[in-house]
Design goal:
Length: about 260
């Protein structure tokens, strides 16, 4: 449902200049009935000047007369091209005060792990401004030494689906411009659930490439030579030769007899 521009100021004018019910004004302006009652009591919208919906071509006087006669009647808003799209969110995402201190860490994470994202995409994801993003990119932020990169999804600044969609759009634009993506960039395009299900692939460090056949146990020839040695005879292990002491003991036994 479309609402008038400057809805709260319009509600102030209707409360001051008509006998419409709080519910009628609330339905017309997109407010809560208790909020309209607070306007009438002077507790809400203090200092806001009333906005005349009749003079600004948003409401016909006949509509107000019908509403004053019939409490169940709902006022109809006149079509105003200036109000088209007014209900849509504009500018960067709103970030609660409790999480605004986490935005630099999220920006640093996005800049570090997703450099393909534009400043406007980062601004929409975490609700920040382009000068802040630029200062973190150039490492000129006043607190850059104490900022640690943290995933904005883990901080609750955006959803994983929103991040994945932004990365896909950035990758599509990069491919359209003819730029090739690296393997690391392709891996980032995989969603979190898919990446968790994938098995880790062992990688040979580049510093020891060419030593894939090297083993600490020696070559195969040495192993085969060990296997071809003469087998050990059991008699050679247990039938030990008589020592000199054994011979002397036998002579003493013979002499004693």
């Amino acid at each position: 449902m479309a609402y008038p521009i400057m809805a709260k100021a319009t509600a102030v004018w209707l409360v001051d200049n008509t006998t419409l019910s709080f519910k009628q004004i609330a339905d017309f302006c997109g407010l809560h009935e208790l909020e309209v009652q607070g306007i009438a009591d002077g507790e809400v919208a203090a200092g806001i000047k009333g906005f005349d919906p009749i003079a600004n071509n948003q409401l016909d006087p006949e509509e107000i007369e019908r509403g004053e006669k019939d409490r169940a009647y709902k006022l109809k808003l006149k079509h105003n091209p200036a109000a088209a799209g007014e209900e849509k969110r504009r500018g960067p995402r709103y970030t609660p005060l409790s999480k605004r201190q986490d935005r630099p860490a999220a920006i640093l994470w996005l800049v570090k792990f997703h450099p393909e994202l534009t400043d406007s995409q980062i601004s929409k994801l975490v609700g920040t401004t382009k000068p802040t993003i630029q200062s973190i990119r150039e490492r000129t932020h006043w607190n850059i030494q104490n900022i640690q990169p943290i995933d904005p999804v883990a901080l609750g600044l955006c959803k994983q689906t929103e991040l994945d969609e932004a990365v896909r759009k950035a990758a599509a634009k990069k491919a359209k411009d003819g730029e090739l993506m690296s393997d690391e960039e392709r891996r980032r395009l995989v969603s979190t659930e898919q990446s968790l299900e994938m098995e880790a692939e062992p990688k040979m460090p580049s510093s020891i490439s060419g030593l894939e056949t090297f083993t600490l146990g020696g070559s195969d020839e040495s192993d085969s030579s060990d296997k071809e040695e003469t087998p050990v005879d059991a008699d050679s292990l247990f039938n030990l030769p008589d020592s000199d002491t054994d011979a002397e003991d036998d002579e003493d036994d013979t002499a004693g007899r």
